[in-house]
Amino acid sequence: MSHHKCFYCEQSTKQTRHEVDHYIDVAEDPTRAFTWTNLYLSCWECNHQKQPNRAIPVTDCLDPCAPDAQPSRHLMFETELIRAREGSAQGLATIKKYRLDRKDLDHKRMKQLHLFNEALIRIKDALIADGRKDMNENEMAVLRSFCQPDFPFSLMFQAYLERHRP
Ligand SMILES: [Zn+2]
């Protein structure tokens, strides 16, 4: 379901320590300890550094598995830095609960942005060399691949391409 990414922070879980998180804490509701829909793939950091329910209840946050979840309406990015959209209490609570603004994530998002920038530069060089103004299908597909659900931090790239749509 999560394409080998942490449900909360979107980092790849392929090479990082990860575990199963109880979305509703067991302390909160022991009857949901083994309920499939309460088990979310999480990186170690999100699971262990998240704020307990008594501090920030999940009901105040975005549920990454909710069918109508629209994270881009609540979260935005300034380069690698995550921010709540203006007026989004849910966005703010989600960032605080899972500490999505922590340094290790900033660093990983920065590395992905670096890959994206390298792809942009290669495309720009090709445009100049060919005397073209517009990207071809292949080049657009390369940029869109960063937004695919299986790509780490795809929400950040969706927001970026949305902002820079010609
Ligand atoms: Zn995480």
What Rg do the Cα atoms give? 18 Å
Which of globular, elongated, flat, extended, rod-shaped describes the shape? elongated
Low-confidence segments, given as residue ranges, are none
Strand content: 5-15%
Query: What can be said about the biggest beta sheet?
Result: 2 strands, antiparallel
The total strand number stands at: 4
| Helicity range | 25-40%
Q: Could you describe the 3D structure shown?
A:
This protein has 166 residues and is α+β, with helices and mostly antiparallel strands. It has one domain (18-163). Helix content is 38%, strand content 11%. It contains five helices and four strands, in the order ββαββαααα. It has a two-stranded antiparallel sheet. Strands 3-4 form a two-stranded antiparallel ribbon. The chain is elongated, with a radius of gyration of 18 Å. The relative contact order is 0.13. It binds zinc ion. Zinc ion binds at residues 6, 8-9, 11, 42-43, 45-46. The site of zinc ion (ZN) has 8 residues, from β2 and α1.
Summarize the structure.
This protein has helices at residues 44-49, 89-98, 103-130, 137-145, 154-163, and strands spanning 18-22, 39-43, 75-78, 81-84.
Q: Which features characterize this protein?
A:
166 residues, alpha+beta, 38% helix, elongated, 5 helices, two-stranded antiparallel ribbon, two-stranded antiparallel sheet, 11% strand, binds zinc ion, 4 strands
Helix-strand blueprint:
Elements: E1 18-22, E2 39-43, H1 44-49, E3 75-78, E4 81-84, H2 89-98, H3 103-130, H4 137-145, H5 154-163
Bound molecules: zinc ion.
Zinc ion binds next to β2 and α1.
